[in-house]
Every structure is written in C-alpha cells, then in structure tokens.
Amino acid sequence: MKTFIYIFRCIIIVVLVVVMNSCSKRVVDDSISVLLEEQALSNAVPLESHDVWYPFDSIYSNRFYVYADTILVVENKKAAGNFLDFYNIRNRNLIARKLPFGEGPGELLFAQMIYEGNVMRVTDYINRRLYNVEIDKVLSNSNYNPELASFSKSIIVTSAPVSYGDSILCINPFHYVHQQAGIDQQPPRIIAMTDKNPNPSIPMDFDYMTVNVGQGLLGANACLGKIFFASFDISSIEFYNSDLKLVKNVLGPVMLPETKLSISIDNNGKHDVCYKGMDQPEAYTGFTIFNDKLYFIYTGRSIIWDNVKDYYSYILCFDWDGNFLKSYSAPVRINTLSVSVSEPNVFYATIKDEENNPKLIKLTPTNTGE
Predict the structure, then answer these.
(1) Among residues 197, 217, 179, 209, which one has the least CA distance to residue 295?
(2) For residue 326, what pLDDT band results from cuts at 50, 70 and 90?
(3) Which residues contact 122 (CB under 8 A, 6 or more apart)?
(4) Which of 51, 75, 52, 79 has its CA nearest to residue 62?
(5) pTM for this one?
(6) Distant-in-sequence contacts of 71-74, Cβ < 8 A, 24+ apart
(7) How confident is residue 368, by pLDDT bands cut at 50, 70 and 90?
C-alpha cells in the first residue's frame, strides 16, 4: 500500500511539472523548469526564537527590520506621522525619521515596503511613486532624501514595482493561469516602464479580469542582469534575464492545490475573478537579499486566514541563477525577514505576539546538544 501511494504521488508531481512547464514553454521556448523536492523542507535547519529589544511601547509600529545587526528600522502605521524610524540598537536611541505621511510634496498617502538588505523599497500606490531608501545614506547624512521615481498612472499596479537601471518593472496583472477554471492568459509577465516609454501599451481586452488574483513578489538585480517573480499562491519562482525573458522556473517543494475562485460577469461581459473563501494555498509571502543571495519566506500549505499564526514559515535560500542553496524551518509564522551579518544562519523576523501586535525576534539554529 505504501508503495502504491508513493508511486501515485510521483505521478501527480510529474503531471503538474509537465503542465506548468508546457505553459512556460508557450511563452519562452528555451526556459527550463526545475523541481525542488520536499526534502528541501524535511532537511531544513531548525531555528529557535529569542526575544530582542524593540520599541514595544509604540502603538504605531507595524513591522521591524534589522540592518547590520546594529540598526533597527521600524515601519510605522499612518497615525505615526512618518513611515520609517531608525534606531541604534546598542544604545536604543532614535537616529532618524523618514518619509512623512501627508498630501504635500514628497509625502506619502499609502505605502508598502520591501526590505532588500541595504535598500528599502517603498511604494506609494496612490501617488505612484517608488522610493529607494539607502540605509547607509540615512545613517551618514541627516539631510538625505531618498531617491524618488514616479511610475505610470495608466498601468494597473497591484504588487510592489522595482527599479532596474533606468526602468521601473512591475507585474502584469493579466498574466494568470488556472487549469480548473479554464483560464489561460499569458501575456508577458513583467512590464517595463522607461524614460523613453513611461506608458507602455498593455492589452486590456482579456476575457478574465485577474487584477485581484495571481500576484506575487518581484525583485531585480541590475548588476547581474537578473529578475525574479515569486508567486503568492503557487510554489513557483520564475527567473528572468535582462531582456525580461523567462529562463528558469523553480517549482516546489510542495505542489499546492489551485486557488478557490469566485468568477462573475460584469456589465461589459468580462469575467471578474476573485478569491473565494478563507481557505487558500500559500506559497511565498516575503523575501530579503543578503550577499547576492535571496532568502524567501515560504509556507507551502493551504491556510485558513482566520488562523494564520498557526502556520509556521520556512526560509528558502537561492542564488540569482535560481539554484537552491539551503533551507530553514522557523517555529513561528514570519512576516518580515532580515539576515544577520555577523552570525551565520541567524535571522531577525517580525511576528505577531499573543495579542496580535508586531514583535521583533531573533532566530538562531536550534541547539541540539550534540
């Protein structure tokens, strides 16, 4: 019986890989698909959590990041008045406040951030602005103003865009494949906005309006000429070259079921696609970058949104070529991730405490006593 189950599981995995690979090859003939096996999770380095200092008495803190083991960056809610606070961890002094909220020049209306090691990528979706906050410059220059880039108001942007040379890249919200629902829309995954072409033409005549589903994480390294897209609900990381062509699709380590959808027809005869229900598959939820390595937060399970704290996270490490390097298993659900520069295999993370407030912890390899 065990042999039969094992054979059946292998067949299912092969079928899924073939289906997803065939989809990719319709877009780029020379791309390859790589299957990351479940041993990546079972062999993960176990981590344990430790309390560390953070301004726990602040009612406006939302997320925490640690830079070079010595600088704490606090992402604030709008009521705080400014988006980012910088603290010296050793003496716990406030160093700087950056990116005020408001309606004036250079102020934020609505912001989300991705932490990429020494740069914080802040997106104001309402004002259509992308700020690249260089932490070293914040620390060395009290008058430093983060680099600002505006992006097109005519393009639907649903996930954080990223600077890439003189371009701003964003995810095409109409790229979506769902086998059970019969949806197969595969325009180019990535859209590039440049100075010469700030408003690239994007076809809108799709049968399915998928702006509320199928999104993910976008990252880029202009020096290496590498770009990736990691899916929120499919165990897939797509790696692209500088021409925005797919070169590798890393599948797994867990083949998740397809999302549950609600599809309705609007007044124009288009199909509006939304998620249905609170039970949905979850793959990649965040990432950070350190020493040209990518560290992804991964769930690999179907979760119930009412109880997200019950689903613990893995950390999967890759290089920019899509080669899997190492994995870690956390004893908690991670919301943000920072990498220690002084201790190998050590991380800092934002989690939710018992009262659902944000809390900073340190994750270290579990002491096995050997």
Answers:
(1) 217
(2) very high
(3) 83, 84, 99, 108, 111, 112, 113, 130, 131, 132, 133, 146
(4) 75
(5) 0.91
(6) 71/95, 71/135, 71/139, 72/360, 73/115, 73/120, 73/135
(7) low
